[in-house]
From TrEMBL:
It holds the Pfam family PH. Its main location: cytoplasm. Residues 131-232, 254-358 form the PH domain. Keywords: Cytoplasm, GTPase activation, Metal-binding, Repeat, Zinc, Zinc-finger. The keyword Metal-binding applies. It comes from Scomber scombrus. One of its GO terms (cellular component) is plasma membrane. Coiled coil: none annotated. The keyword Cytoplasm applies. This is Arf-GAP with dual PH domain-containing protein 1. Residues 9-128 form the Arf-GAP domain. PROSITE patterns: ARFGAP, PH_DOMAIN. It is found in: Cytoplasm. It comes from the Eukaryota.
Length: 376
């Protein structure tokens, strides 16, 4: 009898080796080392902690623990592929499926949506983000004073816009953000709130930021997926021949890189100033403060075929910088000079710029580049 637990654990390892069980059922992390005894899925340690927040639904156990025969039998009967077929059977194409690199909020709400709320077994439960219209109140950061105030937001696919109002009974919106250029990305650390969402849009071809949150995590993730749904339906009309696989990556995007660097002006004679930089696709924006509504300036980063290059270091004659790890971006019109505080930051920024420069430009990006060249 003493051998029985060892035998059970060997059987468990056999089950773990089946297709689908080699990655976390919830975030795709490789080699999951925990399991939910009640749901019959294998999960990574990070997701196992989120499962603990729904103990009435999921009871987790390390695969290193001692297992009895009935527990192994249960895991053998279910497994990740069978659970996916049950709990993810009706996930809309636009719904964001988080990975292990996403923030806790997205991962936790994905787990709750699947196993606690059964949102992907019953389509009617998806109405908060799939109806094409959503309104409610979010806490929005004030542009000038930095205070978060409650504001009414309306997302309307029919009008092709997300709007917000400064007063509850106001007839005219304070801002109209076209779905065509809308983006949303969770920024809990930057905003200082676990539910913090950064929404960007283009106005006169310049980027505008607004920062919002809601105290209810589900509410915030519903807003995020409602924006993705609106973008999905807009793109389906704009690109009628495109497949879901082609459209889904275009719904929302995380920034390629953010952080502080120093920069100097176009003549390279003035002192370097510390700025917050955001790399959003081909737009490199710089701000005085990470939570500014408007960028102080934007730089278009084209492709190597169009004579854009990134170099490590600064020209020998450069003066006025405080940080020693320089970067030079060469464009057809001028050189942009930046300096990073550490070598690691310099390396990461160069890698981000290189990824963009190595990618050929799409036809619509030439129009964006032309606009940047004609800016006053």
């Amino acid at each position: 009898m003493a051998q029985e637990p060892e035998g059970n654990n060997r059987l468990l390892q056999d089950v773990l080796a089946r297709p689908g069980n080699e990655t976390c059922a919830d975030c795709g992390n490789p080699e999951p080392d925990w399991a939910s005894l009640t749901l019959g899925v294998y999960v990574c340690q990070a997701c196992s902690l989120l499962h603990r927040s729904i103990p009435h639904i999921s009871r987790v156990k390390s695969i290193q623990d001692t297992w009895d025969a009935s527990e192994v039998e249960l895991m053998s009967a279910m497994g990740n592929n069978a659970a996916k077929a049950k709990y993810e059977q009706k996930v809309p194409a636009f719904y964001y499926r988080p990975t292990h690199t996403d923030c806790k909020l997205l991962r936790e709400q994905w787990i709750r949506a699947k196993y606690e709320r059964n949102e992907f077994e019953f389509i009617e439960k998806q109405e908060p983000y799939s109806a094409g219209y959503r309104e409610g109140f979010l806490w929005k950061r004030g542009r000038d004073n930095g205070q978060f105030l409650s504001r009414k937001f309306i997302l309307s696919e029919r009008e092709g816009a997300l709007k917000y109002f400064n007063k509850q009974d106001a007839r005219d919106p304070k801002a109209v953000m076209k779905i065509e250029t809308l983006n949303a990305t969770f920024q809990p650390a930057k905003i200082g709130n676990p539910c913090g969402l950064q929404i960007t849009y283009l106005k006169d071809n310049s980027t505008r930021n607004i920062f919002v949150y809601h105290s209810d995590a589900k509410e915030m993730v519903d807003w995020f997926n409602a924006i993705r749904a609106a973008r999905f339906h807009y793109l389906q009309v704009a690109f009628p021949g495109a497949s879901d696989e082609e459209l889904v990556p275009k719904l929302t995007r995380n920034f390629m890189k953010e952080g502080f660097m120093e920069k100097t002006g176009p003549k390279h004679t003035e002192g370097f100033k510390k700025r917050w930089f955001t790399m959003d696709d081909r737009r490199l924006m710089y701000f005085k403060d990470p939570l500014d509504a408007y960028a102080r300036g934007e730089v278009f980063i084209g492709s190597k075929e169009n004579s854009y290059t990134v170099l490590s270091g600064l020209p020998a004659t450069t003066q006025g910088y405080h940080w020693n790890h320089g970067i030079t971006i060469v464009t057809p019109d001028r050189k942009f000079l930046f300096a990073c505080e550490t070598e690691a930051e310099q390396r990461d920024w160069i890698a981000a710029f290189q990824r963009v420069i190595n990618r050929p430009m799409r036809p619509q990006e030439y129009a964006v580049e032309a606009h940047f060249k004609h800016k006053p």
